[in-house]
Amino acid sequence: MTPAGVFAGVFLLLAVYCAVDPFNHSAMSEFPDFEAVKVQMPAWSEIPAERDHENLLQKSEIRFLNQVQGPESMAFDPMGRGPYTGVADGRIIFWDGHKWNDFAYTSAANRNFLQLVFTGDDSGRVLKYDPNTKETTVLIQNLQFPNGLSMSKDGSFFVFCEGAIGRYDQYRKPYD
C-alpha cells in the first residue's frame, strides 16, 4: 500500500471515529437534542472602526492578577463598597479593601456555559427582581448568552452584551 493510501485510510477512519464518537469525547455528547442555529453577523461596514486614539489603556494598571478567575462585570454597592464580581466557578465575590470575600453563590449548572456559546442557544434572558414584592419579571428574552450588564449612572437604562454573537445593546424601556 502506498503512503498516500495509508494516509487516506487513516483519515477516513479518523473521520468515522469523529462522526460516531463512540467514547463521548465531544463537548456536545451530553446534549443529544442539540440543534445548530445559524448566527447572523453584521456586515463589516456596520462594525465601528473607532479605537482608543488617546491610548487611555496605557495609563491603566492591572489589579487582582491571578486572584480571581473569569471575572465578569464589576459593580459597587450604594455605599461605594466593592467591587463585586461574578467569577468562573459561579460565586459572586467582593473586595473589602484587603481580600476577596464570598458574597453569594449561583447554581453549579452554570458550568456548561461554553455549550451555550458554541450552540447559539437563544434561551438567555435579562430578569428584574423586586426584593419588596419578591417578584421576578422578564425584561428581555431570546438572547444568546447575555452577560456584562451595567446600569447607567442615572439609572435610566442599562447596557449588556450578547457574548455569543458579540452584540452590545441597551435597554431603555421603563423597568421601575
UniProtKB/TrEMBL annotation:
Gene3D superfamilies: TolB, C-terminal domain
Family annotation (Pfam families): SSL_N, Str_synth
Residue span(s) of domain Strictosidine synthase conserved region: 103-171
Keywords, in A-Z order: Glycoprotein, Signal, Vacuole
Annotated signal sequence range: 1-18
Subcellular location: Vacuole
GO cellular component: endomembrane system; vacuole
MF (Gene Ontology): hydrolase activity
Main subcellular localisation: other
Family: Belongs to the strictosidine synthase family.
Name this polypeptide is given: Protein strictosidine synthase-like 3
